[in-house]
Protein 1
Amino acid sequence: MSTEALHHLVVVYDIQGSAGLSNPEKIVARNSLDECCTAALETAAIPASQVRVKDLGDGAMLQFGAEIAKSRVLGAWLGAFHSRLRRAYERAERPVQVRLAVHAGELHPSLNEYTGVALDFTARLADAPAAKRVLGATPSAPLAVIVSEVIYDQVVRHRGGSLEPSAFSRIKLQVKETDATAWLYLPGWARVPMPQDTGTAEDDAVGAIPRTTADRVRDGGRQQDITVSGGNVGVIGEATVNGPFNVGGGPR
C-alpha cells in the first residue's frame, strides 16, 4: 500500500456532556446521530465509497476524499445534518447537543485507516472550550460548528456552502498542546450569542476587550435599547447578553 499523503476534509462530531448520560441514553443518542449523518450523506448525494466514517464512542469522524467539494459538505450535508438533528432534539425525551468540527489536511494511509496531524487538530477543534460554553448557555441550539482557520479562509469567507461569514465568531483554541484560533458558528443564528459572565466564551473571543457588567449595560451613563435576537438572548449596545430582560427604556 502506498504511504503517500492524500488531501482530505475531516469532520468530527461529539455529544456535549455525554458523561452525564446513562448507557441507554447514549445508545439512543448515538443511533439518532448515525441516522442524521447517513440521511445527510444521501441528501448531499455523497457516495458511501467516497467517505470514511469512524465510530468514536460519543461521536464519529468523517473523512471526505478530495473529490468531494468542501462546499457540498458545508452546504447540503451540514444543512441536512442540522435539520434532522434539530427535529430529533425537539422530540427526544433526553435531547443532546452536538459539537461539530471541520478541518482539512494531508492524511497518510496506515494499515486499513489514515493518520495525520489533521485528525488530531480536528479532534481539538471539537473540544473547543468556547463551543462548550456557548452550547451550555444556549439550550435552544442543538448544534455548534467549529471550523479551522483554513476552512474559514478558503471556504466560508467565499460563502462556500452558502454560509454567511458574518455569522461566525473567531475564538481562541487552547486544548492540550494546541494553541490556535478557530471560528464558531451556530446554524440558524445570525450571530454567536457569546456568554458574558467572567471566565466564559467572551474571554475566548479573539480581540475581545474585558468589560465589567456595568460597562456592558451602560454607554457613557446612558441606558441602551434591548433587542431580542433569539431564545433568551439579547443585545445591549454592541454586547450580546443572556436574559431575562426588562425590555424598554431607551437612551436616557
Protein 2
Amino acid sequence: MPRPPFLRLDPDRQAAILSAAMKEFAEHGYRGASTNHIAATSGVSKGSLFYYFDGKDDLYLYCYDQSAKAFERELQQHRAEWSRDMLQRLRVMTETGLDILIRDPVIFALQTGFLAPEVAHLRERYMREHGQEAAGEFQYWFGDVERDRLRHDWATTVRLLMWTYVGIKMELAYTGPLPDDPVKFKEALMERLDLVINVLREALYID
C-alpha cells in the first residue's frame, strides 16, 4: 500500500502513477511487470516510485485494491435493481460484473491475475489484511435477500454462495487475457452458471 508521501501528491500525479502501474501489471503480470517502465511511463524516477511504495509487492497490491474498489463501486450502482431471490441475485451480480470487466480489460486482467500462482504470497497477505472487509462486503451484497424456506442456517448458506462466487472467479482466472469474442465467452459462462444455480436451488431450499 502507498506510503504517506504518495497520498500527499497532487491527484493528477497519483492518477498517472496508478494508471501506468495498473496497465503494466495488467499486460505483463506481477513477475513480468517492469518497475523501470512504470516509473518512465508515469514520469517519475524509480527512486521516487519506491519512495512512494515499499517495493513492487506494495505497488502491485495497491493496483489490485484500487481495481477491486472500482469494480465494486460500479457494481453497487446496480444493486437496487436486483431481485431479492438470492440465486437470481447471484446470477445478475455475476452478469453485471462480467459486463464491467469486459468493458475494461485492465480491471479484467488485474482481477483475474490476482488468482495466479505467482502472486499466491501476495494473495495471502491481502486476505490477512482485508479478509474481514471482504466477508462484510459479501454480507452487504446478500444481506437483504429473501430467506424463506432455507434448508440451512444463514451462515452456511452465505458460505455456499461465497464458495460459488469464488469458483466463478477461479474459472475467469484460467481464461487468461480477455477472449477475442467476449460476448460468446460471457454467454458460455452464464450457461454454465445457470446449471450450477439449478443445483443450488435444490440444495438450498425446502420444497
Protein 3
Amino acid sequence: MAIRVLICDDHGIVRSGLRRLLATDPKIEVVAEAGDTDEVVRKARLEKPDIVLLDLALPGPSGLEAMPQLLALPSELKILVLSMHADPSYVRAAFSAGASGYLLKDSADGELLRAVHEVAAGRSYLHGTLGARLARDDVKEQAKVDGNPLSERERQVLRLLALGHTNQEIARMLYISVRTSETHRAHIMQKLRIERRSELVRYAIEHGIFTAEEKPPPDMPDRQPLAG
C-alpha cells in the first residue's frame, strides 16, 4: 500500500512542488494539502494520512502548536517537519512535540523521499547537517559555567520577557508552542531565582542580553509574576 501523505505549507507554490516531487515515487500518495493549522487538523481527521509533511512557520498558530492536535487524532499518523529553520532549538522543540523527523527545505529531492519512507517505517529521521549541529550544541551546553546558566533559546525568551512580551507573543515570534514558551519561562525563573519583571530587566542588561536603550519604558507595569 502507498504511503499516504498530507502536505502542510502556507505557500501554494511550495505545496505544488512537493506534490510533484512526491508523485515521482509510486509508493507515495499525496492525499491532501493544507495551508494553516486549522486546515491541516481538519484534513488529517478526514483523510487519515500516514504522514503529515509539516512546515513550522504557518499563519496563525505555528506548526508546533498543531502537533498535539494532530497526534491526538485516532489515526496513528506521524509528523515529518520540513522547515527552513536550521537552529538546533527548533529541532529539539519539534521532536519534543512529537515529530518523527526533521528535514530542511534546501534538502535534495532524494533525501525528502528517503525521509518519508524512514518515518513511515517507524524510524526517526534527522537531516545529517542538523545532527552535527545538535551534537555541537550539546557540547556547548555541557561546557556552560554557572555564571552563564541559560541556553541560547532561554536567552532569547528572557530578552522578550524582559521587554514585556507575553507567552503567546513569544511563541508566535519564535515559532514555538505556547506551552514551550511557558516551559522556557519556568526554567529561566528557576535558574535565575527571579520572579519580577524588573529583576529580569536588570539581569538582561547586566549580562548583555540587551542594551539599556532597549529597556522598556519605566512606566511599564512591573508584572508579578512574569506575564503569561
Protein 4
Amino acid sequence: MHEIISSLSEASFLLDLGSGRGSFDKMLSRGAVIRVDVEGGAAAGERFILADAPALPFRAGFFDAVVANHSLEHFRDLDGALREIGRMVKSTGALYVAVPDSASLCDRLYRWVGRGGGHVNHFSAPRTLVARIEQSTGLKHVATRFLLTSFSFLNSRNRKARPPRKLLLLGGGNEILLVLASGVLRLIDRIARTRLAVYGWASYFGELSVPPPTEAWANVCVRCGSGHPSDRLKRRGLLYRCPQCQALNIFTSDASYGHLTY
C-alpha cells in the first residue's frame, strides 16, 4: 500500500476504511488521513469517524485514495461497501485492497483459533474479487501480488490478554516454534511448489504514479508481521533480523515463490 500512500500530495485526502486503530502510520502520507470503522477509535491526534462502510458521510469524489487493508472480509454488506468506495474515490484516484485467502492454512488457523475471527466474507479466487471490485468502483485493476504469513497473530509476545486454550495445541504461540514452523512451510513450498505459507493477496486499482510490486515477499516477521524483499535484508547464514522490530527469522529467497501466478 505504501506505493499509493507515499505518492499523495499535501492537498490530498486518504481514507483508511475499516481501519481499527490504523492500517498504517499516518506519517507515511503527506496528505490528510481519515480513519473509519464501526467501533473503537484511532490514536490521539488522528482523524477518526465512527461509521458503517455501506453508508459513509462523505461527498462523491472526496478521496484521492482508499485503503481497505484486511477489512472487506468483515463487511456484511460487501456490495454496498464497494459501491461507496466507488462513489467517494475520484475517477483519477487509487485503491488498495488486501484480503485473506479463506482456503489458506493461515486463514483457517486464524478462524479456528479466533472463533471465526469476524470473517463473514470468504475469498479464494483473486480474479473473481478483482472483477467484482472493478465493476462496483469503476477503477481498473493494475496489479495483484500474493501475501505470505509468519503466523504472527499466534505469537504469544503479541498478546496482552490470556490466550485461547486452542493455542496450547499450537505450542502456546512460542516464538521460536513459530519461526521454525514458518521456515519449514517455506521450504516445502520451494521444493514442492505448494503455497502453504500464502495467506492472501493484495490488489491495486486506479491510477498509480509508482508501479506496485508484483512479486511475493517471502520474508515476513514472526513477531511484528512486516514483510521485506529478500534482496534488501542483511542476513547471517540462514537467519536475518527484522528491520522493523529486530526479531530473528529464517531467511527465504523471494525466488522461492516465483511459481505463484495471479
